[in-house]
Amino acid sequence: MITPEDGICLLVDKPLEWTSFDVINKLRYLLKTKKIGHAGTLDPLATGLLIVCTGKMTKKIDEFQGLEKEYTGHLVLGQTTASYDLETEPTTATDISQVTKERLIDGAKSFVGNIQQVPPIHSSIKVNGKRAYSLARKGQTPELKSREVEIKEFEITEFSKPLVGFRVICSKGTYIRSLVNDLGKTLGTGAYLSQLCRTRIGQYHLREAMTIDEIKTKFSPSQTDAEQKS
After folding, report:
1. Angle at the Cα of 45 (from 157 to 60), degrees rounded to 5?
2. Is 90 exceeded by the pLDDT of residue 103?
3. pLDDT of residue 225
4. CATH number of the domain within which 24 lies
5. What is the mean pLDDT of residues 81-101?
6. Which end of the chain is more exposed for a tag (fewer CB within 10 A), N or C?
């Protein structure tokens, strides 16, 4: 029987407000293994698919990270935030009456292909050895370099101003928050990310993933339901 210590890969449905590190900490305890990692960070305010590998299977993490990603979510037109999502407070609303569905769709299409993208300053990228978000929270503005990413699809799925639903298929390293912020700039109204879910990594789908409680039941049936993340 293959054990977590030998090496397994789990498809995990990351809960809202948990960091990816929270998930790893919890599963390290539940699976009773020291060698464990994930294939692609999800922000605390994002939910969805997180691939977690243990033991010898951690060697596959780079392979998983290189796979294309699919997301669904919502953005809000007419406002911006410093973090490009709801981690920070939105600015005062601006006029969005001139934004039509057709203009929104055209704006989204303009990002399809290989583009240069600057990550949010509220991100985990290191600048001179420190996390960018740590510097940003101290009022500093770390300088982040643009990087090339590929947007394979950027579909508008819902239009109910100021709320807009969307679906994105993209390469690794893409920040959906930055994509939303850049779309807001293109429209001249501003926009921020209000909800995000990763639904697919390569051929692996969220519908196949287990919740933390389901993993707890599968690998630690003696744990009580009242136990919270450690």
Report:
1. 90
2. yes
3. 47
4. 3.30.2350.10
5. 94
6. N
Instruction: Give the integer Cα–Cα distance in Å for 89 and 77.
Output: 14
In a domain, 114, yes or no: yes
Secondary structure of the chain: what % helix, strand, coil (to 5)? 25, 30, 40
Considering the domain boundaries, does residue 225 fall inside one? no
Same domain, 211 and 170: no
Q: Provide the token pair at 17.
A: 């407000």
Number of domains in the chain: 2
Question: Residues 20-55: pLDDT tens digits?
Answer: 999 999 999 999 999 999 999 999 999 999 999 999
Domain range for 13 is 9-66+203-219
Distances (CA, A) of 103 to 109, 161, 190, 213, 222: 10, 13, 14, 43, 55
Phi, psi at 210, each rounded to 5°:
-105, 145
Catalytic residue among 6, 13, 43, 182: 43
pLDDT of residue 28: 94
Q: With respect to residue 172, please indicate whether it lies within any of the assigned structural domains.
A: yes
> Looking at the structure, do residues 142 and 212 belong to the same domain, yes or no?
no
pLDDT, averaged across the chain: 90
Q: Are residues 171 and 121 in the same domain?
A: yes
Within-domain flag for 134: yes
d(CA 97, CA 104): 12
Specify whether 43 is catalytic.
yes
CB atoms within 10 A of CB 141: 10
> Is the domain of 73 the same as that of 170?
yes
